[in-house]
Amino acid sequence: MAIAKAERLMNLALCLLGTRRPLSKRELRESIEAYLEAGSDDSFNRMFERDKDDLRELGLVIETVENLDGEVGYLARRDSNRLPPITLDAEEAAALGLAAKVWQQARLAGAASGALQKLRAAGLPEDVDPYEPHSALEPRIPVHEAAFEPLMLACRDRRPVMFDYRKATAARPEPRHVEPWALECWRGHWYLAGWDRDRGAERVFRLSRITGKVRSRGGRFTAEVPDVVTVRETVASWAGEIADRSALIRLRTGSGYPLRAKATSVRELGDGWDELEIPYGHGLDAWLVEFGPDVVVLEPAELRADVVDRLRAVAKG
Predict the structure, then answer these.
(1) Rg of the chain over all Cα atoms, to the nearest angstrom
(2) Does residue 274 contact residue 266 with C-beta atoms inside 8 Å?
(3) pLDDT for 129-188, tens place per residue?
(4) Nearest to 248 by CA among 265, 269, 271
(5) Of 199, 189, 306, which is closest to residue 236 (Cα–Cα)?
(6) Are 190 and 148 spatial neighbours (Cβ–Cβ below 8 Å)?
(7) Do residues 24 and 32 touch, judged by C-beta distance below 8 A?
């Protein structure tokens, strides 16, 4: 379905760019096979308006012109849709090349390689090889979850999806119907932020907990998509990055170094245990579970209960 839509958009863009005069809806429908197959005029009109909006969102400048007879036509003038020559100095080209390098370990490696070829044509100096290691640190974005690519495309195309999701406190996954907004990476884990249709509220899903295939659903988004900054704040909050309280835990000596790095105070208890005060925000219970028997929550009581519930769910399988 995504390929058919992409082909339809490409055909519409070519028609609008290739004409010297405005084309009416009727003429466009007769010129594009997908429009000819529309079952009714209403179906065609809805399809055409969506496609026109999508092309404009992609940056194509489409003019609406009314002739002397009052008929409305559309065209995309080449001079209005021509990009200026791209010139890059060595530092700019190297920075973009480094961005392409980041994705070489991910599922977007093919797209990154294609982008690099375009950078070469745009002025990336031949002596700058972004794939050669120049330092001890190499940027990488690890993407191992099969759900990443279909969700990335669904976010781009504003397409609702359905998938099975296993909460940390649940023994079995359950279906979720989601309008995907954006993918964000926190602490080496990928998260999807979106609108959960079943719950009528925004939710954040960790990709590693999505089981099975991500299925596309028909229809359009029903909830307003927030801006990127708001989405990142939402993911940060759900991933436990925003803390408004403190928690007191016992941590086995010589373990849990990420927790020690977050601690605001550390006190030795003896007998192989330390007492730590750490920031407490949404998602801390899921993080503490990862340290297994090396962590014991002292307070608050609700955090301790959440951790116990998660451990019991893991024990049940």
Answers:
(1) 26
(2) yes
(3) 554 544 444 555 566 788 888 898 888 888 999 999 987 666 688 999 999 998 887 766
(4) 265
(5) 189
(6) yes
(7) no
Of how many residues is the chain composed? 317
pTM (predicted TM-score) = 0.48
- Nearest by Cα to 284 from 254, 316, 306, 255: 306
Copy the structure tokens of residue 170.
């649940």
- Give yes or no for a contact between 222 and 181, defined as CB atoms under 8 angstroms apart: no
Q: How far apart are CA 299 and CA 237, in angstroms?
A: 20
Strand runs (DSSP E) across 187-242, as ranges? 189-196, 201-206, 210-216
Helices first, then strands: H and E counts in the chain = 11, 12
- For 297, the token pair is 């929550």
pLDDT per residue over 234-247, tens digit each?
776 666 556 678 89
Q: Do residues 163 and 175 lie in contact, with contact meaning Cβ atoms separated by under 8 Å?
A: yes
Q: Are 297 and 286 in contact (CB under 8 A)?
A: no
- Sign of the dihedral defined by the CA atoms of residues 250, 253, 257, 261, in that order: positive
Which contiguous run of DSSP H or E holds residue 248?
Answer: strand 243-252
Among 80, 72, 82, CA closest to 21: 72
Tokens 């209403």 found at: 42
How many C-alpha atoms does 149 have within 13 Å on its Cβ side? Answer: 10
Q: Is 159 in contact with 208 (CB distance < 8 Å)?
A: no
The β-bridge relationship of strands 72-75 and 174-186 is unpaired
Contact present, 81 and 60 (Cβ < 8 Å): yes
What 8-state DSSP symbol labels residue 207? G
DSSP, residue by residue, 274-289: EEEEEEEETTHHHHHH
